[in-house]
Write a structure and sequence with these properties.
Elements (H helix, E strand, L loop, with lengths): L9 E2 L3 E4 L5 H4 L6 H7 L7 H16 L4 E8 L7 E8 L3 E8 L8 H15 L5 E7 L3 H9 L3 E12 L2 E11 L8 H9 L8 E3 L9 E6 L9 E3 L6 H11 L4 H10 L39 E6 L11
Parallel strand pairs: 5-6
Antiparallel strand pairs: 1-2, 2-3, 3-4, 4-5, 6-8, 7-8, 9-11, 10-12
This protein binds coenzyme A (COA).
């Protein structure tokens, strides 16, 4: 067996994944809450002794040919861990991924960013070919983490786990090493295909000014410019859908200029991630006979720019 390299510290400047330190066990237990205990099936939140034992185990498992690699997650400007991410090696180049963010730091996209960094580490340093995660069907925040980290929804394992003595459905999310990045057209479309109906109609609209310039949008989720528009809803005709999207999305020039006045960065064509990407919501099926609100497509975030070129070729988006 080749020598195991020391566990690295990985950072993107704001999120850092690093090995656990002994002094973490004085800070982290106070940050655990009942949500963590609930979704991990523990009868209670971890004590200092529980965490100290876990840290010892993680170091041993790392040294044991990296069978499990668990990182403490740090956030710039915060002392001590704000969460954890872990990859557990399974046979055949597969890794099982888990994540947690401590309560005071939730809602800041810590987990999706940390999971993306972990995935990159697992594919390069550990040489894994596929990562997967199983998320309780009712744990919506965790499902959002999987999608935001670029994992596709692959299916439901009905009744495959128990929680509090109850049999639970688990959703499987998967990411392969060769999957296209989610901020590319193909990557985004395949991610959306994993959670939305695959047959959907998209309507785009060409808006030109008197100078022949065409209105294009930057999006927060992919690199390419696109025409304003979006998914046609059930019972809607494409023209109505395109008009509705034009009004609903911040693409109209007036709206755009108002937004620019508040935040000049948001008007820049290349400022693609000015807002959080819209993701589809996974809804439970409606009971038979129930009237449901019209399903809404994911809300892509767009910003408008007038293309100085006189014409563009139309292309369908997601
Ligand atoms: C699931 C979890 C890891 C999400 O981590 P995070 O760093 O908050 O991730 P995000 O910031 O991307 O938030 C994920 C979703 O949770 C929502 N959310 C949940 N709790 C929140 C809170 N206290 N404050 C703000 N947002 C919260 C977010 O709005 C987001 O939903 P959205 O995509 O519709 O906006 C974290 O809530 C957690 O550790 N929960 C308890 C344990 C658990 O479920 N672990 C995973 C087991 S598979």
């Amino acid at each position: 067996m080749t020598a195991v390299p020391p566990q690295p510290t990985l950072t993107d400047g704001e999120i850092t994944l690093r090995p656990w330190r002994d002094d973490d066990v004085d800070l982290a237990p106070a940050l655990e809450d009942e949500q963590i205990a609930h979704w991990s099936g523990s009868p209670r939140v971890s004590t200092r002794d529980d965490l100290a034992a876990a840290v010892r185990r993680w170091h041993e498992q790392y040294d044991d040919d990296r069978s499990v690699v668990n990182f403490a997650v740090e956030l710039a400007g915060v002392d001590g861990p704000v969460g954890t991410v872990e990859v557990r090696r399974c046979p055949d180049g597969v890794g099982d991924v888990r994540w947690t963010t401590y309560k005071p730091f939730r809602g800041r996209r810590v987990a999706p960013r940390a999971v993306r960094m972990l995935a990159s580490y697992a594919f390069t340093e550990l040489g894994l070919e596929r990562l997967h995660a199983e998320v309780d069907a009712e744990n919506r925040p965790s499902s959002r983490v999987a999608l935001r980290a670029g994992f596709r929804r692959e299916g439901v394992l009905r009744g495959s786990a128990t929680l509090g003595g109850e049999r639970r459905d688990m959703i499987v999310y998967g990411l392969r090493r060769d999957d296209p990045a989610p901020d590319t057209v193909l990557g985004w479309t395949t991610l959306m295909d994993s959670v939305l109906p695959k047959k959907r109609v998209i309507a785009h609209v060409v808006v030109r000014d008197t100078g022949g310039r065409v209105l294009l949008c930057t999006t927060s989720y992919k690199r390419d410019l696109e025409l304003p528009g979006g998914a046609v809803e059930p019972g809607e005709d494409p023209l109505t859908a395109a008009r509705r999207e034009l009004v609903e999305e911040p693409v109209a020039a007036g709206h755009h200029h108002r937004r620019r006045a508040r935040d000049p960065l948001r008007g820049l064509v290349h400022h693609r991630r000015a807002r959080r990407p819209g993701l589809p919501t996974e809804r439970p099926p409606a009971p038979a006979g129930a009237r449901r609100a019209r399903p809404r497509p994911p809300a892509p975030r767009r910003q408008a720019v007038l293309n100085p070129r006189p014409a563009v070729s139309g292309r369908s988006g997601t």
